Amino acid sequence: MDRVGVGIVGSGLWSGFYVTASQQHRRADAVAVCNPNLASAERLAKRHGVARAVADYSELLASDDLDAVAIVTPNDSHADLAVAALEAGKHVLCEKPMALSLAEAQRMQAAADGSGLVTGINFTWRHPAAARYARDIVASGELGRIYHLFGCFQQGWLRDHNAPRVWRLQRAKTGTGTLGDIGSHILDLAEWVTGQHIRSVVADLETFVDERPLPEGGRGPVDVDDAASVLARFDDGAMGTFTSSRYVPGQGMDQRLEIYGEKGALSMDFNDQQNLRVSIGRFAREGQMISAPIPARFGTTPERYLGQNVTNFIDAILQGEAMSPSFADGVHNQALLDAVVQSGQDRAWVDVAV
User: Fold this and answer.
1) N or C: which end of the chain has fewer CB within 10 A?
2) What is the rounded CA–CA span in Å between residue 224 and residue 180?
3) 227-234 and 198-206 strand pairing
4) Model confidence, pTM
């Protein structure tokens, strides 16, 4: 294959990153934007210079110049869109969380198995410099066996009780609320940085405001979590504590991860992509945390890391290789989300199914 034609399904804010990354790849083209709301698709296509906007997904999949689709839609449509694309012989990159449930995610994986097609999930936050350097330090063995992880991914945009009820606040559209939207990221990041899976969880979920204004007037119910707290056990017995919330004012995007091991520790903060705080070697022996500049080889820009999985997806297609994060990563993450929800309902520890 000389070039990869990518169709972007969805035309919201995040779709623009997919379009840009596809256009910037030297061997790819963003060939179309698809949304049943054709006017929305046309606006995104015009903004980014994409030649075609379509409302009919079947029409998109039938396009001769289409090799792959990027699914950037509400979570309730992921499974059907992905399975249809795979059955049409198209490679698939899907937003996270993978689906509404583990059963749906496994249906997507089953459609991909044996197809020879590249599939991937967009866990964006593996790619900033701080995350990649943290993973490198853990992989070097400089922390030794991991004992504790503390992580958070927190925002404040819902603290206004009159903020409208968008699709992210409706279980039928999204499956879970804060948990799937940003909690899935911090759980995936902790696993990716350490190279270990979470095997069991106990969780607490809360909805602080249970109704919000509707676009057409009046108010409607909010039936997803506004915040989630998770205790977790990892493969080798490490203990994790993770929080996600949309009710944390004054922090912007607050994403942090602390890791403590037998030989040392590290602390990464998304808002500092120049340094990590570490306690390694003699500094660990002296009980000190110091600021460690992130080496230039890990450096990146927001424009690049926000589209990095798109680049990786296209490269995998061209090279005939599997992509990471894969559908298998997405299935595990969905199993983890399902376990968290089950634990919150049962008020008990729950093992992760996959």
Assistant:
1) N
2) 10
3) antiparallel
4) 0.96
